Amino acid sequence: MLTAEQREIRDLARDFVEGEIAPRAAAWDRDRAFAPQVLANLAELGFLGMLTPPEYGGLGFDAPTYLVALEEIARGDAALALTVAIQNGPVPHILLAHGSEAQKSRWLPALASGEKIAGFALSEAEAGSDPSGMSTRACAEEGEGVWTISGSKKWVTNGSRADMVIVFARTGSAGSRPPIGAFLVDTDARGYRVGKREKTMGLRASETVAVDLEGVRVGTERLVGDPGRGLGYALGALDLGRLGIGAQAVGIAQAAMEHAARYARERRQFGRPIADFGAIRSNLAIMATRIAASRALAMEGAAAWEARGSEDREGLPVTARSAMAKLLASETAMWVTEEAVRIFGGYGFMREFPVERLMRDAKGTEIYEGTSEILRLVIGRAVTRSP
User: Catalytic residue among 124, 356, 366, 369, which?
Assistant: First the structure.
């Protein structure tokens, strides 16, 4: 059950979505871009700094409340929700958990206000599911107080829109898992090059690009935390990121079910609405049940995030809980959107109707921030480890 405050946040987000996002989502998908003004409007409501503490200009929500708002935004447009998730989740978390006070004071208020947009550059062409195999390197220039970063990153959300990107790079070569650092890189720095924008199946308004770093020089004040522990920072941030993707997937599924139910009440065959037929009602019932289960698991994962550092009653760490939430929610979104297309029949295959877009968007949630196969490995490892 939601608290009174969470219901207020949900209603505020829902009103904004119905007025500003949902009516434009199809056009944004077609044009492969959402209007920049929508980010400014979200920032004005505080939705770009939901997890940032008030002393740094944010709203200071806990993780469950954040998921409530993010689900509503995703119900309107999943591509926009992805940008909002990056802005609120992994980047601020790494700064809050591992950044210096100077870094927090400089960047967190700018991110929360929307003055600066953030990106997250971890994956590479040969280092996706295993980021420890990255080849991007950061070399310290002795006596200069400067690091030089060279390499290439793939699938960087907000890579061309962002003002600052957290870039992960090897800071040494020892062992099978080399030390990796996290660096705050301005996108207007010399040597930062935005490469090809990917043509994605869904989430088309989200800018997913390759980034080349050709001798980008950053001062030591841009290194976050320990120069050898950046990979751990990234993986910890992915726990929060996966909860956000779980909420995004629930929002996609909720939108698809609502469209399907509305259409079923309006579409008549054999002299009556197709909603009167048992097969349609059964499908809608399963949709509603799976969505409710996915939402509950995401909220449970968010509660585990708030209590991180301790295991829950089943002995599962937050990493497993967040993986479970994303796995169930993303596969639910894919199933629900497919069934919604079937309920629409021939119209479901047409671009003029929303469910085909939602189905394309849902597929992405099964892939980024950990494929379903990787998530099963993460969960299985937690379940089978020795007590």
Answer: 369
Residues 6+ apart with CB under 8 A from 383: 316, 320
Q: What is the DSSP letter of 271?
A: T
Q: Are 217 and 148 in contact (CB under 8 A)?
A: yes
DSSP string, 317-333: -HHHHHHHHHHHHHHHH
- Strand 272-273 vs strand 192-197: parallel, antiparallel, or unpaired? unpaired
The pTM is what?
Answer: 0.95
Decide: 80 and 20 in contact? Cβ < 8 Å. Answer: no
Q: For residue 175, what pLDDT is reported?
A: 61
| Rounded-to-integer distance, Cα 191 and Cα 217, Å | 8
369 is catalytic: yes
Domains, in order of start, for the chain: 4-112 (1.10.540.10), 118-227 (2.40.110.10), 231-384 (1.20.140.10)
Beta bridge partners, 141, equal: 146
Specify burial of residue 289 (Cβ count, 10 A radius: 0-12, 13-18, 19+): exposed
pLDDT in tens, 115-127: 999 999 999 998 8
